[in-house]
Design goal:
19 strands; 4-stranded mixed β-sheet; elongated; 406 residues; 2 domains; 6-stranded mixed β-sheet; alpha+beta; Creatine Amidinohydrolase
Length: 406
């Protein structure tokens, strides 16, 4: 949680954190700025103190909605420095030197944000020369924000609940939209008599996401037949919807205001399911239910990946444990944390050191994939552990394989 940052900073020896760059795709900046709708900013967080948001004057009102103290970048004499040097890089360096003086930054300062690796290397190297009394650093593995974000506070949980409710509504409305179409020769048809396609469904989904105030930050997965057998195949736009073919529908939108995601997957077959698909689906649901029955605070996440591998291997499927790198059978880890990032800690893979704890939000998503047999199956809920250790799914949409077509 954000309230853990000061403790984590002390453990890591950080006296201050600086996050900078554009806001889009900059999870640490969005996290510290409480989702402020700014285009570019710097956040300064000293240990034991509230973060401060540094922005341009044009964004002062949006920045103020963050609830954080605001400092305008004019405080650091951008225009004068640029007039003196005519060089934006030099101007930025001088501004940051003034920023360090303004906030009385000393000791060890860790940097985060978005910049090209080369630009960041040159910038921090030169800035370090001008601030010899300060140690500039960063983190290459699990960052302080990754660690803090493993558990969520009440405001974050509320944000995750509301995006979950709206995502489930879109899923339900999409299924209803599909069911509203006529069938001829095993294909669903639009009013003009042409086949209903994957692209048609995706356009309908995007319209409903917009209606519910959600955005498609990453392209959804709506993959039928063989495409569903490759886990991250997005689906072919022109592929027609046909009866009896398994469809993997993975929907993971973001609330553009809060920045929080929901992630859910349903696999369904229209009208009827092939026997082989039905059997595989039952095995996926066996694995899913076994995990849900065993989830408990204090347990290592790796235990649940092993549990799923046990079940699938007993049914004769390859797994990452029995055959690392396999492209058929069970081919991925069981789940991942979710929040202001679509994928974050805890992780549910072999040898993960993560432990389940109250306040965590994560996905559980076992699957089986057989592209050469023309199908894939995945079922995914987003799960929340409440302060008392209760396990709750934020994804109540039914998990029926066969969707009747009138």
């Amino acid at each position: 949680m954000k309230s853990d940052l000061d403790r984590l900073m002390e453990e890591r020896g950080f006296d201050a954190l600086i996050v900078y760059g554009p806001a889009e795709g900059n999870a640490p900046l969005r996290y510290l700025s409480n989702g402020a709708k700014v285009t570019h900013a710097t956040v300064v967080k000293k240990r034991g103190e509230q973060p401060v948001l540094v922005v341009g004057g044009m964004e002062r009102d949006e920045a103020a909605r963050s609830g954080l103290p605001i400092v305008l970048d004019t405080e650091f004499n951008f225009h004068q420095h640029y007039k003196d040097t005519g060089d934006r890089f030099e101007t930025t360096l001088r501004m940051y030197v003034e920023m360090f003086e303004h906030f009385d930054l000393s000791g060890t300062v860790s940097f985060y944000g978005i910049s090209s690796p080369g630009a960041a290397l040159v910038f921090l190297t030169e800035l370090g020369k001008r601030l010899p009394h300060v140690t500039l650093t960063g983190e290459a593995t699990r960052s302080i924000f990754d660690e803090a974000g493993i558990t969520k506070d009440a405001d974050e949980i509320a944000a995750l609940h509301t995006v979950a409710e709206r995502t489930n509504a879109v899923m339900a409305e999409t299924i209803a939209f599909i069911r509203s179409h006529a069938v001829e020769d095993e294909q669903l048809l639009k009013e003009d008599g042409t086949p209903l396609t994957v692209g048609d469904v995706k356009r309908q989904v995007r319209a409903r996401l917009l209606y519910y105030g959600l955005e498609e930050a990453h392209d959804m997965i709506f993959a039928i037949g063989r495409d569903g057998g490759v886990p991250h195949s997005r689906g072919e736009e022109n592929a027609p919807l046909e009866l009896g073919k398994a469809i993997v529908f993975d929907l993971f939108p973001r609330d553009p205001v809060t920045g929080y995601f929901h992630d859910m997957t349903r696999t369904f077959s229209l009208g009827y399911a092939a026997e082989e698909v039905q059997h595989a689906y039952e095995q996926v649901m066996q694995a899913f239910n076994a995990v849900m029955d065993e989830l408990a605070v204090g347990q290592p996440t790796a235990r649940y990946q092993d549990l799923v591998c046990d079940i699938f291997e007993e049914h004769g499927h390859k797994t990452p444990r029995s055959e690392p790198g396999t492209t058929e059978g069970y081919v991925h880890s069981l789940g991942h944390g979710i929040g202001i990032n679509l994928h974050e800690s805890p992780t549910f893979r072999e040898h993960s050191e993560d432990i389940l704890a109250a306040g965590q939000v994560f996905t559980i998503e076992p699957g089986l994939y057989y592209p050469d047999k023309g199908f894939g199956i995945r079922v995914e809920d987003t799960i929340y552990i409440d302060p008392e250790g209760g396990i709750h799914s934020l994804t109540p949409t039914p998990k029926d394989l066969v969707i009747p077509i009138p």
